[in-house]
Design a protein that fits this description.
The chain is of the alpha+beta class. It has 2 domains: 131 residues, Jelly Rolls (Sandwich); 108 residues, Homeodomain-like (Arc Repressor Mutant, subunit A). This is Helix-turn-helix domain-containing protein. Keywords: DNA-binding, Transcription, Transcription regulation.
Length: 266
C-alpha cells in the first residue's frame, strides 16, 4: 500500500528537531509525524505489534495514533511534525526502509535546519522538502513484487547482519548458507529488496557507524575506528569511506561538528 499520492496536501509544518529516544507513551498524537533514526534502535508498540526502528529507517506516525516507545539503545532521531488537509494515509505507525537512505537523510536534516530559521521563506522551502520525502516514500513503495516468503528470508538475513555487522569476520557466504540459498540467487534477491548488493549494504552501514564513532571523540586513531566499525584493513576502510563521503576519514572528522540535541519525546 502506498502511503502518499499526488493528492496528498500538506496543511502546515509543525516542528522539526533532533532529540534522544526515551521510553514514551503517545495518546491521541496531535499531528502526523516522521521519525528518522540517526543512531541506535527503538521499538514501537501498537495494536499488539512490535516494530523495531533502526538507524537510517523512517517511521510514519499518524495523527491521533496511540503507541508506546521502548528504547534500550534508543540513540538520536529527527522528528518532523506536520498537518494534512488530505485524509491520513494510514491509521497505524508504518516503517519505511530505504534502498538508498542518503537522499532522505539530507532532506530531513535540511528541514530541521530550515525550521530553526523559521521565517516565511524557510517554512515554504521546508514544506517543499517534506513533499520530496513523501515522493521518496512513494517511489520506494513502488518496488518490484517479491513474494512474502522471499521477503521473510531476506528479513532473516538482515537480522543476522545487524547482529554481526561490526564483526570483521562476517562473510556474505554466511548469509546465503544460513538461508539455504545459492550465492547467486541470494545476491539477486537481496539487491531487489534493498537496491544494493550485500557487500554494498554492509559497507554502507559500517561507514555510517564509523561516522558516529569519528565524531564521538571516543576513539583516538582511524585504525581504532575502522576496527570498531567492522573493517579489519584500515586502508580498505579509508578507501570505502572516501568513496562514500568524498573525503578521507581524518579530513571528514576535522570538519564535521557534533550533532546538536534538543527537545524530547516524539
Amino acid at each position: 500500500m502506498r502511503l502518499f499520492h499526488g493528492d496528498t496536501d500538506i496543511a502546515s509544518l509543525q516542528g522539526a528537531f533532533t532529540s534522544v529516544t526515551r521510553p514514551y507513551d503517545a495518546f491521541d498524537r496531535p499531528f502526523h509525524g516522521f521519525v528518522y533514526k540517526i543512531e541506535g534502535s527503538s521499538q514501537y508498540v501498537f495494536n499488539n505489534k512490535v516494530v523495531e526502528l533502526h538507524k537510517n529507517e523512517l517511521m510514519y506516525l499518524p495523527e491521533h495514533s496511540y503507541y508506546a516507545i521502548r528504547a534500550e539503545n534508543g540513540g538520536k532521531y529527527i522528528i518532523i511534525n506536520f498537518a494534512l488537509h488530505s485524509p491520513a494515509p494510514a491509521d497505524e505507525p508504518t516503517k519505511i526502509s530505504f534502498r538508498d537512505h542518503s537522499k532522505v537523510y539530507k532532506l530531513v536534516h535540511q528541514i530541521q535546519h530550515l525550521w530553526v530559521m523559521k521565517n516565511d521563506v524557510d517554512v515554504l522551502m521546508a514544506k517543499s522538502l517534506l513533499y520530496q520525502i513523501m515522493a521518496e516514500i512513494a517511489r520506494q513503495q513502488e518496488s518490484v513484487y517479491i513474494s512474502p516468503e522471499a521477503r521473510e528470508k531476506i528479513s532473516t538475513a538482515i537480522q543476522y547482519l545487524r547482529q554481526h555487522l561490526y564483526d570483521s569476520g562476517l562473510r556474505v557466504r554466511d548469509l546465503h548458507t544460513l538461508l539455504g540459498m545459492s550465492d547467486t540467487y541470494f545476491r539477486k534477491l537481496f539487491t531487489q529488496v534493498y537496491g544494493l548488493s550485500p557487500v554494498q549494504y554492509i559497507n554502507r552501514e559500517r561507514i555510517e557507524q564509523a561516522k558516529s564513532l569519528l565524531v564521538s571523540g571516543d576513539f583516538g586513531t582511524i585504525e581504532q575506528v575502522a576496527q570498531a566499525a567492522g573493517f579489519s584493513d584500515v586502508y580498505y576502510f579509508s578507501k570505502v569511506f572516501k568513496s562514500q563521503t568524498g573525503q578521507p576519514p581524518t579530513e571528514w572528522r576535522r570538519y564535521t561538528p557534533r550533532i546538536k540535541v534538543e527537545g524530547a519525546g516524539c
